[in-house]
Amino acid sequence: MRSCQTTRREFLRREAAGGLGLLSLTASCATTEPPSPQEAAIEAMETSKLLIQATAVRRPVQEPLPGVFASLGLETVYYIRCGERAVLIDTGFLHNADAHLSNFESAGLSLGCVDAILTTHYHVDHNGGLAHVRQRLGCPVVAHKNAVAAIESGDRVVTAAEMPFLQGWSFPCAACGVDEVVEAGDDVTVGSIAFKVCHLPGHTPACTGYLWEGNLITGDVVFPGGTLGWYDVHWGSNYLDTVDTMKRIEELAPRQLLPSHLLPFAYEASITQNATAAAKDMMNGNKGGPVCFTTRAPLRETGAATRAIQIDPRH
Ligand SMILES: [Zn+2]
Ligand SMILES: [Zn+2]
What we know:
Layout: H1 3-16, H2 37-54, E1 62-65, E2 68-72, E3 76-82, E4 85-89, H3 94-106, E5 114-118, H4 124-127, H5 130-137, E6 141-144, H6 148-153, E7 180-182, E8 187-190, E9 193-199, E10 208-212, E11 215-219, H7 239-252, E12 256-259, E13 265-266, H8 269-284, E14 308-310
One zinc ion binds at residues 121, 123, 203, 220, 229.
């Protein structure tokens, strides 16, 4: 039996018991001997079950900002009140999607008010449940133009549905239609809120922010303290884009950042400074991490407003 598997299982058990931190499941571990195919299959099955438990949705929802409700599993799904109407930010894993929705309903939030799903990027932990929720609620999916191919194909590598280096990490990620394709500078109006679309590439070329009243939804772009999310060439991650994106966030000068893991946190300059330094360190190989040189995000935004998109109420 490989020693690292035992470690991973124990780690996941702790996670399943209520911790957060699967994000840190990156430690490499020495292998002593390869498992037999049978051992590997059992291990993968057990790990999958533990992964599902570890990522399960917790109750109740929280309201970290007025009118902003957060349902947390490994991922965070937001329900944002827009006057009488509402939007969802992402849908979470498929196995969590219904639990997120019932979490919101338990807090007295009406799913009938949800007029759109705004997506931050195409990763499985945020949008594996997208097709299901789009069908269940019958509301349009809004995505950045760089996200359309991955969302509409459900590509298992690009969406991180399959990560072969993480045994057992294999989640459904059904292809889903995109109803409104947006790009930087667009305004998406739902109810009383006009969300400004921001392009924040780096983690993926499709990472999309939505800004309103000093609140910036940042997805997996940056976390408390300026920590960066995972980077992988298969997703089109690019640290050069991250450096530009951090400049963009500085210019936007938001008050709050709303990440797609954990809870919103106050923006301060050290966050983007630390993230920029981390990206440059990775590019220079100073941290010994994977150095990713992929093509840069194809869309270089001008910052000019392009279109005003009005989402109509569903009922
Ligand atoms: Zn991601
Ligand atoms: Zn994520």
